[in-house]
Amino acid sequence: MRADLDAADLENVARRTYQVRTYGCQMNVHDSERLAGLLEDAGYEPAADGDVADVVVFNTCAVRENADNRLYGNLGHLAPVKAANPGMQIAVGGCLAQKDQGQIVERAPWVDVVFGTHNIGSLPVLLERARVEQQAQVEIMEALEVFPSTLPTKRDSAYAAWVSISVGCNNTCTFCIVPSLRGRERDRRPGEILAEIEALVADGVLEITLLGQNVNAYGVEFGDQRAFGRLLRACGEIDGLERVRFTSPHPRDFTGDVIDAMAQTPNVMPQLHMPLQSGSDRVLQAMRRSYRQDRYLRIIDDVRAAMPHAAITTDIIVGFPGESEEDFEQTIDVVRRARFAGAFTFQYSPRPGTQAATMAGQVPAEVVQARYERLVEVANEIAWQGNRGFVGQQVEVLIAQGEGRKDARTDRMSGRARDNRLVHVAIDPAQPARPGDVVTAEVTYAAPHHLVADRVIAVRRTRAGDRAEQPTAARPAVSLGMPGIRAR
Ligand code: SF4
Fold first, then answer.
1. Residue 475 has pLDDT above 90, yes or no
2. Are residues 330 and 422 in the same domain?
3. Rounded mean pLDDT, 200-217
4. At what angle do helices 26-41 and 123-133 cross, to 10 degrees?
5. Residue 96, Cβ neighbours under 10 Å: how many?
6. pLDDT tens, residue by residue, 50-69
7. Are 403 and 361 in contact (CB under 8 A)?
């Protein structure tokens, strides 16, 4: 049943405070910005640090290990807090809510609202209905109701923004629960995406990250295999947009036209995060990842030929069921040949609801641990070698929110280079930078996972930097003059 209460009911929530606790991937971080925007649109205010919020929203992840134990543990901690604050409400959304649905209120009856991945827009109404009816509300949709990007948003950053281009995934990787929780891929129309980006840039944003579960499959829904490359080129036409990134692409769909578009569009950053998962063809097949080692390495060669300075990073799973020592050695071999600038390495552990969880040949935990440590050592050494090559070179650093906070001990600020390397830069008292400003500095030291650039050459003050000095407020949904995507 769709919830809908009238505006007068929603006005009653004025001045109640909220807190959103986010777990999991960038998709959830982006959804949480929407949840915050929705709540502020409905009259809620962010709770001050250390205060008990009137509404606590958990935006959950079902991918991380022990995600459910963690959620129920956190809900357990909140039970006495809620008992002491009778007006308090607790809501649970995200992938775990989509998976567990009504079980959540059975296991934690003090939860007021459970909502799924397809209907985050219903949260304010469900909270209000739970309050009026004094009864838990569970609303889970099986298909996308409104594309999240058409909802109000409260961005954490004045200079950077996520832009959803698709949600869901048509692949069936055997270790992944995402397709069953986020559904099949739905693509936004290019005009709608570009209108959102233009509005963001008008609001001072310098950097956008195009977001999708399988970003370069974009266009599958409206039958344009080259849509992603075209979208990158169209981003290059937007005045004032300095940096374009995307995450995450799938090697299967990585085509030459995308590499050309990256190389030929100056504001698309020389950076690629492309999950490898395993270097063994046998394991890739068991994972149902439809590329093989040679194709993956060929893409890397093509990217490097077109963009010699591109920083390439990856995700790798160690100890997938059936992974032999020889399979693992092949992963190490690919890591050496690909020379990744960074690798996010994960120890495989069975996730309920995935095919891999019940596969034969689960690898003992101590073997997984030992392989993981060997892989991390190799990956770190390669990343460090790459970083050492930057000493003495100039980098252009966009000072980051959060990361960009001044470190009192070292007197440095942090941000990202064009190729997304983390850089800590000295603060020049003569020309202080703010989050959102751009600093050009010479690298003076390299560590495996960051650079230090203590020789500041120039600071460019930006509109985003001006905005960062102002308090953030809920920003209205970008008006696109067209409806959001509706469930069929
Ligand atoms: S591509 Fe594979 S790992 Fe990524 S979301 Fe789709 S099914 Fe999951």
1. no
2. no
3. 94
4. 60
5. 29
6. 899 999 999 998 876 677 88
7. no
Q: Identify whether residues 208 and 323 lie together within a single domain.
A: yes
Check whether residue 109 and residue 198 sit in a common domain. Answer: no
Q: Which of 177, 214, 278, 316 to mutate to test the pocket of ligand 1 (most atoms within 8 A of CB)?
A: 214
Which residue, 388, 383, 386, 385, is CA-closest to 443? 388
The side-by-side arrangement of strands in the sheet containing 160-164 is 160-164, 207-211, 243-247
* Burial tier of 131 (Cβ tally within 10 Å: 0-12, 13-18, 19+): buried
Is the CB of residue 290 below 6 angstroms from any atom belonging to ligand 1?
no
- Enumerate residues 6+ apart whose C-beta is below 8 A from 20: 32, 35, 36, 39, 57, 59
- Domain carrying residue 12: 7-139
Tell whether ligand 1 has an atom less than 6 A from the beta carbon of residue 171. Answer: yes
**Does 188 contact ligand 1 (Cβ within 6 A)?**
no
3-state secondary structure of 478: coil
Which pLDDT value is given to residue 392? 98
Domain end position, chosen among 139, 169, 185: 139
Pocket test for ligand 1, best of 26, 173, 246, 354 (most atoms within 8 A of CB): 173
Domain assignment present for residue 469? The answer is: no
Number of domains in the chain: 3
Nearest CA-CA partner of 158 in 200, 213, 129, 101: 200
pLDDT tens per residue, range 225-234: 999 999 999 9
**What are the phi and psi torsion angles at 166 (to 5°)?**
-155, 160
- Cα separation, 207 vs 404, whole angstroms: 15
Residue 57 within any structural domain of the chain: yes
Task: Tell whether the torsion through CA atoms of 346, 351, 356 and 362 is positive or negative.
Answer: positive
Among the three residues 388, 406, 431, which one is the final residue of a domain in this structure?
388
Task: State the CATH number of the domain containing residue 399.
Answer: 2.40.50
